[in-house]
Design goal:
By secondary structure, the chain is mainly beta. It has a domain of 44 residues. Helices cover 13% and strands 36% of the residues. The protein has an eleven-stranded antiparallel sheet with strand order 1-5-4-3-2-6-7-8-9-10-11.
Length: 238
């Protein structure tokens, strides 16, 4: 069955991120279709992010600035252009439409989110034997995919919480990064090994050449440029 998306505002365009559908002559507004999917599920909800974290040091966002972004649906339609930002702590992709702020509430229907030229995919992963979902930044594409999972935790301060203040002035957001890999045969990304020698299990049959390339690169597994370099090199060998 052919699925169509109906809009009255031409915000679904061919954006260069893939093959997109053309949308025209529609009775619904963009926000209406994004707020309620054809199956009754909500695709976005209105939020008021400003002021939610004013008493906390640090930032829960990947970047405090609103930057150009696009939302690519699994129907191959691309909604753009938006001013967007990523709330890591809340696991929210936020966007502005007509001066109102929304967050994607059904990311399982989203194929990818673009923040400038950075691609994010909402994928399952396992931590402490529990399956969770998060927005992974795609650092290297190919048979061997290198993915970065941004994290943010809230470290509690020393000031007591009162009935009038639910946040402490000494609370602080601390950002983290975790590395994952995925091949086309894997539906769920796996955590990257912590040692360089253990990388050989990711790239079967490539051990001699892999270690030689690591030696040439002076590879360090905790260095982002080295991880990107070795995954790029391995994809070139396929």
């Amino acid at each position: 069955m052919k699925t169509s998306i109906i809009l009255s505002i031409s915000f679904l365009v061919t954006f260069g991120y893939g093959k997109c559908q053309t949308v025209e002559n529609a009775p619904l507004t963009y926000v209406e279709i994004f707020s309620t999917g054809f199956d009754g599920s909500r695709m976005a909800y209105h939020i008021q992010p400003e002021g939610r974290y004013t008493e906390i040091k640090g930032s829960p966002y990947l970047s405090d600035d609103w930057i150009n972004g696009a939302i690519q649906l699994k129907t191959d339609s691309v909604a753009s252009p938006f001013r967007m930002r990523y709330n890591i702590y809340g696991n929210e992709m936020q966007f502005i439409y007509l001066k109102d702020t929304f967050a994607v509430s059904n990311p399982l229907k989203v194929a990818a989110v673009w923040l400038d030229n950075r691609r994010f995919e909402y994928l399952p992963f396992v931590i402490n034997e529990n399956q969770q979902y998060g927005y992974f930044e795609v650092m290297v594409e190919g048979h061997y995919r290198l993915l970065k999972l941004h994290g943010a935790r809230l470290d509690a301060g020393r000031d007591p919480v009162t009935p009038y203040h639910c946040q402490n002035s000494t609370d602080r957001f601390v950002k983290t990064e975790s590395w994952y890999f995925q091949t086309h045969e894997m539906s769920v990304p796996e955590a990257l090994p912590e040692s360089a020698r253990s990388l050989s299990r990711i790239f079967p049959g490539s051990t001699p050449g892999l270690f030689e390339q690591m030696k040439i690169m002076r590879f360090r597994i905790h260095r982002e440029t080295d991880l990107v370099g070795i995954f790029t090199w391995m994809n070139e060998q396929k």
